[in-house]
UniProtKB/TrEMBL annotation:
InterPro entries assigned: Retrotrans_gag_dom
All copies of domain Retrotransposon gag, residue ranges: 69-152
Biased composition (Basic and acidic residues): 1-24
Region feature Disordered, mapped onto this chain: 1-38
Pfam families from the UniProt entry: Retrotrans_gag (PF03732)
Protein's UniProt name: Retrotransposon gag domain-containing protein
Top-level taxonomic group: Eukaryota
Length: 171
């Protein structure tokens, strides 16, 4: 028995050309301005940018990897130090002591020496008082033997000119 369309009409496949005509009639006409063609792509410049982006990503990944490895080394060092020197945390560790031990272990001596020299030669110059104070605090970590003595700390903080004036006044 032959298949019939709706309402006893002819088979559905004969109706298909009419559907295509209706779809064409219902398709919207393009609206708005016609855009100009895209400019040609300079693939040399494109590839340079792509290579630069990949290199930047590689540098970032290398830096993150180095940071993670350093953090792991520091974690292992600290866990060992807690067990051996501080009786598994039974003895409290002051922050200053932790920082001193950390610098001894992880900051090379020549870097510590350079930072200490920066501390001794620190002058306010064009820095604001807040900037100078921040730099003083940052560098003073590398000269704890100086900043523990309040008189010496004041001399350093006031700068070399103040020391000379104080000495001239006999103070």
């Amino acid at each position: 028995m032959a298949s019939r369309g709706r309402h006893g009409e002819a088979p559905a496949h004969e109706d298909e050309p009419r559907r295509d005509e209706r779809a064409e009639q219902q398709a919207p006409d393009p609206q708005g301005p016609v855009l100009p063609p895209l400019p040609p792509v300079d693939y040399g410049v494109f590839m340079q940018g792509l290579v630069q982006a990949m290199q930047t990503q590689a540098h970032t990944q290398a830096a993150l990897q180095a940071q993670l490895e350093a953090q792991e080394r520091a974690d292992v060092w600290w866990a060992s130090l807690l067990r051996t020197r501080f009786e598994d945390g039974a003895i409290d560790v002051a922050w200053d002591e932790f920082m001193r031990l950390f610098r001894v272990k992880f900051v090379p001596e020549h870097v510590q020496d350079r930072m200490e020299q920066g501390f001794f030669s620190l002058a306010q110059g064009s820095m604001t008082v807040l900037e100078y104070e921040a730099r003083f605090s940052e560098l003073s970590k590398y000269a704890p033997h100086i900043v523990t003595d309040e008189r010496r700390k004041t001399e350093i903080r006031d700068g070399p000119e103040a020391i000379t004036e104080d000495e001239a006044r006999g103070v």
